[in-house]
Amino acid sequence: MYEWIKAFHIIAVIAWMAGMLYLPRLFVYHCAAETGSVQSETFKVMEQRLLRAIINPAMVATWFFGLWLAWLGPDSRYGWFASPWLWAKLVLVLALSAVHGMLARWRMDFAADRNVHSQRFYRIINEIPAILLIGIVILVVVKPF
Ligand code: HEM
Known about the structure:
mainly alpha, about 0% strand
């Protein structure tokens, strides 16, 4: 049972991360498209579908299966919650979820043709999920504390 939940957790994580790395990249290209152009309207559809069909459900599934695993854990009373690495991981996952929320807000700005950020801004934002991903995977696999 535990291994099955972990498999679904990892599948959800991959889908969430794929979207979190791709959406800011779409924003970078969207910045270069002229407002009202066919290209700009196409980016709007791509961004909305990516967020609604992949990123949002994948985040919910990641949290659902992750918390389930944490609750099952090795300690019959506290699950993995007795392990400090899990708390450190949760801090990084909360940060990732906050980035998710900001990406959703910027997507709405693009949809309403009122984006105020530059290409450079989205290029920098694009690095944050990648950095958080490295920290999260090291914490859960190495379990350093
Ligand atoms: C949403 C909150 C999350 C919670 C509560 C959570 C919790 C957990 C728990 C308890 C495990 C099982 C650890 C084990 O059996 O050794 C696990 C496995 C894993 N998690 Fe998460 N997780 C969350 C989000 C994430 C995210 C965002 C990522 C990656 C970006 C991630 C990547 C992984 C990986 C790769 C494993 C498999 C580790 C292994 O089998 O060695 N998790 N998670």
